[in-house]
Task: structure prediction
Amino acid sequence: MSLLPRQTPLPSNAQLTALLDDVDELLLLVDARQRLSFCNRCAQRLLGCEPGQPLAQALHRLDGPSRAALQTALARGPADVALALRLADGQALALTPTRVAGSGWSLRGPAPDKALAQPPLPAGATSELIRLLWNSPQPLLVQDIDFTVVAANRACYEALGSRPDQVLGQDLARGLTTEEQDELARSRERWRAALADGRQPERAAEMRVPGGPGAERWFRYAPRWVSADDGAPLLLALLQDVSAEHQARDQAQHSGDELDGWFDLSPIGMLVYDASGLVVRSNAAFEALIGRSPVLLGDMPADVCRLLAWEGSAPHPDLQRDAPPLEVHASVALPDGRRQHLRARLRAFGSAQGGLRVMAVVEDRSLEDEHDLARLEIGALMDAASIGVATYEPSRGWVHNRPAQAAGGPALPAAAAQGGA
Result:
């Protein structure tokens, strides 16, 4: 009896990822479409890249010549030769491209020696900078590695609306909502990672400072790592009051909510579509007029497209930004077989993303058509009548129609027509 060798299970993708994440060197995988399919933590910290990014975006921290040299090496073919590259801040970096299965590439290289990273700012320069800014009208805040406030200038106390004993020794995250605290915690993790790599924080943050009714303030928080006189890291932050910006944004949001309510409650049919013919929005009154809820104008009947000035695959050429409204009359077939005469007034405008959108206001003209027809019929009857007819209107007095004329006889005089009335 022969014994079969025991099958050894292969490690899972999660296990491989955990193993490669702990490797103290840069590891990146690029697929055949020149997109980053994997990068370990070391590469993420140094290059600021994320899986799924195009290669040019993933390596944005390299300077221009280094990016060009790397792209040339990948286009030339496998060489397994280390490339001497340089980051935009001047730090040297070496990466070796190697061809892998599936027409992809692996990029690997040693992590730069963190001991060679320059401190963010010498201690003496930090003290001099803080003394220079201390009496400025710009709010200035200094925090330690745990983000506890250790110093703040007078402008900062005035901007926060707090006394020194309410700020010093405190964490400004107190009083925030759970969601706001989570967002601030993520920002602080990025700032700590930048300090560990000898870099400065790349992005500012916005922070809400709770207060009493009407005293809530918003600040844009621009941090920078500096050094204390004893070499301990400190976070120096300049605060910019953006409360007015947030209030304007809230007011715009409220105005948008009100407009949304008017749009939905309007008894007039309203619809908005974009340049591709996608119906962005329509209200119940519009759906009642045409008997259906459109999604793509290209899938709608020709009479509906004609009403909404949609021609084939694009809006009517006259629908341009800042152009006068376009008026269209069309007869639209309803699902029950009836036809309804509708009038649409359309105007084009630009969206927040820069695209073209068209708003249509649609009205039912059937009742007006019936009134016009009835008026014509009454006029025809009055013209054919064998007696004179006059109408009295208080604001205008007696209003005469054309005098009736009997066949072969003279027309009635005006006085006789009035008398007959």
Summary: The chain is about 30% helix and 25% strand. Residues 56 and 146 are 36 Å apart (CA to CA).
